[in-house]
Specification:
Blueprint: H1 2-31, H2 45-55, E1 61-65, H3 78-86, E2 92-96
Parallel strand pairs: 1-2
Helix pairs in contact: 2-3
Length: about 100
């Protein structure tokens, strides 16, 4: 049970840290006059992004990309590549680092 508690506490810290980071980014966007909402979810990233975007009836999904692991996703990044293919009705803007 000790290991399970450590895992749960670690997940909580990661979620909180991530939420703070994402909220700070959303606030910067809001200051530019753009409506921005944030969400922190766990699971398969591309699927969770697709679910959240549909749930919120998003006009646009903006993603950052580092580059990918497979040849076909190397240009975009594997998560960005998957989101584009799972959200054909919602425009996706990919910002490459």
């Amino acid at each position: 049970m000790m290991a399970a508690r450590i895992v749960m506490e670690t997940q909580d810290v990661l979620k909180e840290t991530t939420a703070d980071y994402v909220e700070a980014a959303a606030e910067k966007i809001r200051k530019l006059g753009v409506k921005a909402r944030m969400a922190v979810r766990t699971g398969r990233p591309a699927e969770e992004i697709a679910i959240e975007a549909r749930k919120r009836k998003a006009d646009l999904i903006i993603l950052g990309s580092h580059g990918g692991s497979t040849v076909e996703a190397a240009v975009l990044g594997s998560v960005a590549y998957a989101v584009i293919h799972k959200n054909s009705s919602i425009p996706v803007l990919v910002v490459r680092k």
